[in-house]
Amino acid sequence: MNSDTPIIEIEGLTVRFGEGEDERVAVDTASFSVAPGETFGLVGESGSGKSTILRAIMGLAPCEATVMRVAGQDIRRGHGKDFYAKVQMVFQDPYEALHPRHTIWRQLMEPARIQKIQDAEARGRAALDSVGLAQALRWRYPHQLSGGQRQRVAIARALMLQPDILLLDEPTSALDVSVQAEILNLLRDLQEERGLTFLMVTHDLGVVAHMCDRTAVMQAGKLVETLSIEALVHGGAVDPYTRALIAASETYGEAPAKPHIQTI
Ligand SMILES: Nc1ncnc2c1ncn2[C@@H]1O[C@H](COP(=O)(O)OP(=O)(O)O)[C@@H](O)[C@H]1O
Ligand SMILES: [Mg+2]
After folding, report:
1. Which of 19, 66, 99, 111 is deepest in the core (most CB within 10 A)?
2. Closest-lying ligand 1 atom to the alpha carbon of residue 218
3. Which overall architecture, per CATH, does domain 8-98+168-248 show?
């Protein structure tokens, strides 16, 4: 794939929940594309449809679209098993994402078993190393780890299949402030080492400024504006809603050591 070709290309994505009078359009004709190696943010208030976009890409939400090409596949017609080797998702709450009664090692081996990976054990050890977890932790259960360690396990599991794309749904929102920067920095390091593409949902403009190359701003299911982080930080936002978000967030663009979560 040449580097000008987007690795994620979405046009006219619409997701509806419910029927008849109860129908609700959670995502309304959203369009965006992400270049290989880019970190693209989806930012907006709670309920604006950010997670639903990620879920639609993973095949977890009913959707329609005129274009939905991800990692070289037209996913409007379904997702092949190899799609999940290329695209993995990391959820907001690692405690919910991990199986409570499986050891860390078993959580790592599971995706490798499903995809029939031959060198699963070597990959598992390497995955633990790459997220900075001691090998000895592999026999523990999720409740025996800290929140930050659990999110590291979730990231290690996502890396097991050596994906090209990570969909990150508020990956630090459930963590203590002191741990958030560690996880964000880990993600950046992993991206650099592996040339990963990130599509990252957050409600925090500080996180966007620290992590992203570009971001889309969502309001009530619509993408109201897509802009570079340069424009975001230097007053280049045009849409009134984007400008209100920025005004409401005093800390966006702050020093990366202290990302600050605030509800906007
Ligand atoms: N499975 C579902 N069934 C019905 N409504 C849903 C479902 N998932 C999300 N929604 C609704 O879609 C809208 C967008 O939700 P979501 O994508 O989770 O927002 P965000 O991630 O931006 O907070 C919300 O109104 C939410 O209640
Ligand atoms: Mg969400």
Report:
1. 111
2. 22
3. 3-Layer(aba) Sandwich (3.40)
Q: What is the pLDDT of residue 81?
A: 85
Domain residue spans in the chain?
Answer: 8-98+168-248
Ligand 1: residue of 52, 173, 200, 241 to mutate (most ligand atoms within 8 A of CB) is 52
Phi and psi, residue 217, nearest 5°: -110, 130
Q: Cα–Cα distance between 177 and 153 in angstroms, integer?
A: 19
The confidence score (pLDDT) of residue 255 equals 45
- Residues 182, 188, 194, 199: is their CA dihedral positive or negative? positive
What's the pLDDT score for residue 52? Answer: 97
Q: What residues in the chain have per-residue pLDDT under 50?
A: 252-264
Which residue type sits at 254? E
How far is the C-alpha of 172 from the C-alpha of 221, rounded, in Å? 23
* Residue 50 Cα to ligand 1 middle (Å): 8
Cα–Cα dist 242/60, whole Å = 28
d(CA 9, CA 182): 30
Q: Which residue is associated with the tokens 């109860």?
A: 22
What pTM does this model have?
0.92
